[in-house]
Design a protein that fits this description.
By secondary structure, the chain is an all-alpha fold. Helix 20 crosses helix 21, helix 29 runs parallel beside helix 32 and helix 32 packs across helix 33. The longest helix has 31 residues. The protein is elongated, with a radius of gyration of 45 Å. It starts with a helix and ends with a helix.
Length: 612
């Protein structure tokens, strides 16, 4: 404060100032008379404090000095006594400062950062204060959404709430009444409601922001999904998708439904989410179509047996989109249809309804063409064919009738393009089987497409009969079909599944030649190229089934270009895998039954008996 102002103030209040000064001086004299050392220490401490104020830049120091000067000019007698008192205080202050310096040398300085910044209690208190501040920010917004009848106020509150939830985390939402917030947002997004008369909704911006708030809430607090499901959010979202008034609101509702389907696909599918997300798929943009198909794929993964109606309704849309040029759209559609086939594979009738004969024809044509769309979805399509052929015998017969074996042979041959020919690779087969790690560098990794093609080949080829009499019956059927005598048809009602598949194989003109000249040598090469036991087992199964399917003449011609004895010796000698050895023994049995005179002595000469 300026000196002039202080003088005016002192002159205006002279009586009170005089009383204060006299009281101060009298108290100082009394303290000096009672205990001079204590008084000196006290005055010296005051003097040290004033010096500290000057050093630290205390703004009150100048004010105190100005007041002291005015008081000294007003009363000289008080000044003399004050000077004497100050001199005593200086002496005692010097003594006190020296003692304080000695104590400061002995006493360590307090760690202020350790008391406040590093204290767990301080952190908890600060975190609690922050959370309380967040709660105080959410509370008026929730109240404004539920109580206000003004749409402009609701829009402002929703905009602010959207920003808060976009930056929120699980910690910042502690203490917030999530249930009340979710109930209010669902009511706003659902449109006009007679139950909540205080809420004015139906506005497109209000419904859009309400759905966006729900989406941000699920991103910040994933556990809030159970709260949303408890308040009926699936019904609201399906209503917004089935009865589209605003495309932006429908897209936002689809985003929320997809978020819920990640962890609660069963509840979403039970509420009709699968049909809702695919109902108007063509009206959305490509990115939104990806979101809808992602939701559909999540729902089909958890679909129940009692929800076959939704599955049947979704199949036409999936059949159309699985052949789109967009890779992600086609892949998601194939995944959804594959999940449906897996879910209902215990019922052949339902699988046949889901995957029609026309769809099988389109799938085989797509795989055969090898276009860009098929390259992205070939693995999913092959997996779908494996599931369908395993569940339905009728669909398996149709696949054989579509001449799918040459297509599979082409895929398997492409995966083994860099391998040597089977006639020169028998020694490598035996060495790889016996020495193991020394020859593992020659093994190649089987691609996912080749693996699924191998699985489909095993599924389509007929199983071996269980008894020798059945084996003889199958051999008779093979000879009849090989002669192409159409005057002796086979009654499909009285023969087994094996007979039907053999009939389907020989009804196709190119399939037996593919089995003889392409598939059998190819399997021997693949056995030498991999050390994966499941892959080797399926390769041996294909060899066993091909040997069984071919008649004696075709088998003799097929085995002429390959060294079968060395192959079976290598397979039988695998002591660490009894399953492979047992399958190789079955191959030996079938070959000896078909060609006893040709291979009995050869098996003995080539060391097969010694291997056994």
């Amino acid at each position: 404060m300026p000196a002039l102002t202080v003088n005016e103030q002192v002159q205006g209040e002279s009586e009170s100032d005089e009383i204060d000064v006299v009281a101060h001086s009298s108290s100082s004299e009394d303290s000096m008379q009672l205990d001079s050392e204590a008084g000196s220490s006290h005055e010296l401490h005051n003097h040290g404090s004033s010096l500290m104020d000057v050093d630290t830049g205390n703004p009150h120091a100048e004010h105190n000095s100005a007041v002291s000067s005015v008081d000294s000019e007003e009363d000289s007698s008080d000044e003399d006594s004050s000077n004497e008192n100050n001199s005593n205080e200086d002496d005692s202050d010097e003594h006190n400062s020296e003692s304080d310096d000695d104590e400061s040398k002995d006493t360590p300085q307090a760690d202020v950062g350790g008391i406040f910044g590093g204290s767990r209690l301080f952190e908890l208190g600060l975190g609690s204060a922050v959370r309380m501040g967040n709660v105080q920010r959410f509370r008026p917004l929730i109240a404004a959404l539920g109580d206000s009848g003004d749409e402009s106020q609701q829009l402002i509150a929703l905009q602010e709430l959207t920003e808060l939830l976009a930056m929120a985390t699980e910690d910042t939402l502690i203490g917030v009444d999530v249930s009340s917030l979710v109930q209010t947002l669902i009511a706003l997004a659902n449109g006009p409601s007679p139950e909540l008369a205080g809420i004015v909704s139906g506005n497109a911006n209000i419904m859009l922001l309400a759905c966006r708030c729900l989406s941000n809430l699920l991103e910040a607090l994933p556990l809030a999904g159970s709260v949303l499901l408890r308040h009926g959010v699936v019904d609201m979202l399906c209503t917004r998708l089935l009865d589209i008034e605003y495309i932006d609101v429908a897209e936002q509702a689809l985003t929320v439904l997809t978020q819920l389907s990640r962890d609660s696909a069963t509840r979403v599918c039970a509420g009709g989410g699968l049909s809702a997300c695919l109902m108007f798929l063509d009206f959305f943009a490509t990115s939104t179509q990806h979101t809808a198909l992602t939701c559909a794929a999540n729902c089909t993964r958890a679909i129940g047996n009692d929800q076959f109606g939704q599955a049947a309704d979704a199949v036409p849309v999936l059949e159309r989109t699985m052949f789109y040029s967009d890779p992600k759209t086609a892949d998601l559609s194939c995944s959804a249809l594959l999940h449906l086939a897996v879910a209902f594979r215990s019922s052949p009738e339902r699988v046949e309804r889901l995957v029609s004969a026309e769809l099988l024809q389109r799938i085989v044509a797509s795989i055969r063409s090898g276009d860009s769309a098929a390259r992205h979805t070939s693995v999913a399509l092959l997996r779908l064919l494996v599931t369908v052929a395993s569940a339905s015998r009728e669909r398996a017969m149709q696949l054989l009738g579509l001449d799918v074996i040459p297509v599979l042979c082409g895929i398997l041959a492409a995966s083994c393009a860099d391998l040597p020919d089977a006639s020169t690779d028998v020694a490598n087969t035996a060495g790889l089987a016996t020495t193991g790690s020394r020859h593992q560098k020659s093994a190649v990794h089987m691609s996912e497409q080749a693996w699924e093609a191998l699985r489909l080949t095993v599924t389509l080829l007929p199983r071996l009969p269980a008894s020798d009499s059945s084996l003889e019956r199958m051999e008779t059927l093979v000879r009849d079909k090989c002669s192409s005598d159409s005057s002796n048809p086979v009654d499909s009602d009285s023969v087994s599944d094996c007979c039907l598949r053999l009939q389907a194989i020989y009804s196709s003109p190119g399939t037996p030649d593919q089995l003889q000249h392409t598939l059998l040598p190819l399997m021997l090469r693949m056995f030498a190229s991999t050390t994966n036991t499941p892959a080797r087992y399926r390769v041996l199964l294909v060899v066993l089934k091909v040997v069984f399917c071919l008649d004696a003449d075709r088998l003799r011609a097929a085995l002429y270009s390959v060294d079968l004895p060395q192959f079976v010796v290598a397979a039988v000698s695998l002591q660490d895998s009894p399953l492979l050895s047992a399958t190789a023994l079955l191959i030996i049995q079938v070959v000896l039954e078909k060609l006893p005179g040709h291979y009995t002595q050869r098996f003995v000469r080539e060391g097969v008996v010694d291997g056994l």
